[in-house]
Amino acid sequence: MELIDRFAEVDTTAICDADKTTRVMDSGIRPRSAQSRVFGPAFTVRCRDDFLGVLRAIEAARPGDVIVVDGGGRELALAGEMFARGALVRRLGGIIIDAGYRDIAYVSRCALPIYSRFVTPMAGTTVKLGELRVPVTCGGVAVNPGDMILADEEGVLVVDPARVEGLLDAAAAVKKAEAGLAANLAGGRTLSDGTNLAEHVAALERGEPSKLTFT
Predict the structure, then answer these.
(1) Residue 207 in contact with residue 46, Cβ under 8 Å?
(2) Torsion, CA 52, CA 54, CA 56, CA 57, rounded to 10
(3) How many angstroms separate the Cα of 13 from the Cα of each of 25, 39, 100, 101?
């Protein structure tokens, strides 16, 4: 099964449960389009108050790439409807901007996953080249060119490509355990019945290391 198909069977919460060190963009980076699921390598851009770099990235990126823009968290739009349409033509995997996005009337119905910190009608200029394929900061976390971007309605994750397969395996195990617990709860059993809660609390009270697990 392809990795993208395996991601479709889990979610970002299960991945974060599997690995507490996962890079998570801050909650100010929100989905703006009809599709929120993202899975693809980062094509990074750094620019400030000018969106020429974003345009260059859309035209240079490969199908499946996710445009990740370090816009400095400024409240100016660095992309809009035409950029979304252009990214769809190029078959890109999404656009994530730590700045503003505009033309939400179109974007809200768009099949391309689009995330931004702000929605604003005012766009930047087009006179600065910007920087492409460089390490950036987006949503408060480091993003390197080629890092894998995994996102859904819960948020945006940044993962070292070498770790994706293992994380998806671990996330699938989390989902399986959760499904078992949910079935038990539906059958009238309690959270205590489905976890090691009593033993976990007792161990912590004794000052011993312990981990809450499903049983």
Answers:
(1) no
(2) 160
(3) 13, 15, 26, 26
- Consult the annotation and say whether 26 binds a ligand: no
Cβ within 8 Å of residue 59, ≥6 positions away: 86, 90
pTM over 0.85: yes
Question: Among all chains, which residue has been given the structure tokens 């976390």?
Answer: 141
Query: Which helix (DSSP H) or strand (DSSP E) does residue 45 occupy?
Result: strand 38-46
Domain covering 3-161 in this structure, CATH number: 3.50.30.40
For every residue of 12-34, which 3-state class applies, written as one string?
HHHHHHHCCCCEECCCCCEECCC
User: Would you say 102 is a known binding-site residue?
Assistant: yes
214 pLDDT higher than 90: no
* Span 82-107, pLDDT tens digits: 999 999 999 999 999 999 999 999 99
Secondary structure tally for the chain: helices H, strands E: 8, 11
Listed by start position, the domains of the chain span: 3-161, 166-205
